[in-house]
Amino acid sequence: MQLRYRFRAYPTAPQRAALARGFGCARVVFNDAVAARRAAFAEGEPYPSASTLSKRLITEAKRTPERAWLSEVSSVVLQQALADCDRAYRNFFDSLKGKRAGSPTGPPRFRRRAAAQAIRFTRNAGFRLLANGKLRLPKIGDVGVAWSRELPSEPTSVTIGKSATGKYFVSFVVSLEGDESLPPIETETGIDLGLKTFAVLSGGKVIENPKFFSKLERRLKKAQQVLSRKAKGSANRAKARLRLARVHERIRNRRDDWLNQQVYRLVSENQALFVEDLPVKGLARGRGARSIHDASFGSFLSRLESKSARTGRTFARIDRFFPSTRLCSACGVLAGPKGLEELHIRAWKCGCGVVHDRDVNAALNILREGRRMVAAGQAETRNASGGQVRPGTPGTARETRIRGTE
User: Fold this and answer.
1) pLDDT tens for each residue of 241-294
2) Distance between first and last Cα of the chain
3) Predicted TM-score of the model (pTM)
4) Distance in angstroms (rounded) separating the CA atoms of residues 375 and 11
5) Interior/surface letters 263-285, b for 16+ CB within 10 angstroms, e for the rest
6) Where in the sequence numbering do the catalytic residues fall?
């Protein structure tokens, strides 16, 4: 298993200038590769191979006066830019042929000079981790790194990038050789995600929604207004852009830190975790799109699944059409509120006499369905389409549910 470790870097002024040259050269080579393949397509010729582009756009280009400055950066950086372009085209063609999962992918576009940039070095570049804690990069020098933890193994590649706020980071790709499995415990939980509260566990625990974007929305709006009134190309506009980027960065950093804490706590306290497979992309196009993006359900579920796999925990996604809200967790009758149509109903009473909290009841049903899936050896449940969704319960129509938008 390969993991990525990211640390803050502190290059000197000459090193920042060298990095700027590297960012620019990598961007030029990438754009030249896109232009060459577009020209080949327009003329009806086959796409040039990666080796042909490497010879034409790097080796031969360095000998010309127009591209002689490519020699100022490591050739590995330029080769990795070509590899990125080739990978982008392969993803595009695989998407056209239906070989690539997910949403359709378009062809590569020209890269523009942006505030956030990055270049990548592989082992062939000869980068080294020095005894004094610095990172030696070819044609850049020994870059200071703020180490917060040790790398589990020797890195196979390193990416150094500049954020929109002018901060530098290094990212190492390492192969995980050790075992991260946690001691086994007996606790299992179902997780019901929502907006009013971020999550409700089957045991009744509630994780409140921090709403980081909403808390800083006024400051963000003010920064955007100030930026819009500055003249393009002026120094004041550059300062206003930096202030806006810092607000975005603060929101992102606070959200990422909070998500990591919740994932670590859930994985540490439970042997098995079961969640509902929400259609995050579809929900993000609805009326609560801003709240969906702020909650970052997709990132949370991805991190929870990855952390569970690394630590030896059981993780399963329940089919999104499973009626976790409507199903009575006591008797199995479909008598609860119907998703978005009756979203205002937060508690309901079943005919068997049990009074349910909407969210806790859904989490209990998710837990039971997850246990059933694990016992049956199912990776995921099938779409019921009106049929039986679990033994002993009647059929149900499809429902797409997201809790508590009021």
Assistant:
1) 999 999 999 999 999 999 999 999 999 999 999 998 888 888 888 777 888 888
2) 42
3) 0.83
4) 54
5) beebbeebbbbbbbebebeebbe
6) 192, 276, 359
